[in-house]
Amino acid sequence: MNDRPRRNADSKSKRSSQLNARNVQSKAQLNLAKALASVFAAGVYNKEDLQAAVCTFVAEMKEGGETGEGVVRAAQGLVREVGARFPSSERTQVLLADMVTWCLAEYYRESA
């Protein structure tokens, strides 16, 4: 007979949903990082595409239980991380300001 304590179904379900949230966040983070790299590498970029990537990132982090402040910090960190691979420019500060605005707007947007 097995003497190990049995884990309840709620514990497994919670762990599974947390793992799924991390996987989704990782995909959203990867997509946003790619979009940011494209912005820093290109002379011009599509603001709507970048904003859409930011909104997806925010929505997935929010679903995973992250706070508004945590989402903004993660986005800012990603901009700095990706931006550090490219020559320094004013674009980084502009992107940070835009992304903070987009993050907060998406995080606190009312779902219809």
What would the keywords be for this entry?
112 residues; mainly alpha; globular
What does this structure look like?
Helices cover 74% and strands 0% of the residues. By secondary structure, it is an all-alpha fold. It has one domain. Helix 1 packs antiparallel against helix 2, helix 1 crosses helix 3 and helix 2 crosses helix 3. The mean pLDDT is 79.
pLDDT averaged residue by residue: 79
Count of domains: 1
Shape: globular
Q: Approximately how much beta-strand content do the residues carry?
A: under 5%
Radius of gyration: 18 Å
* Counted beta strands: 0
Write down the secondary-structure element order: HHHH
Number of H- or I-type helical stretches: 4
For the largest beta-sheet, the strand count, sense and barrel status come to:
none
Structural class: mainly alpha
Termini gap: 53 Å
Task: Chart the SSEs and their pairings.
Elements: H1 9-41, H2 47-63, H3 68-83, H4 91-107
In short:
Helix content is 74%, strand content 0%. The protein has helices at 9-41, 47-63, 68-83, 91-107.
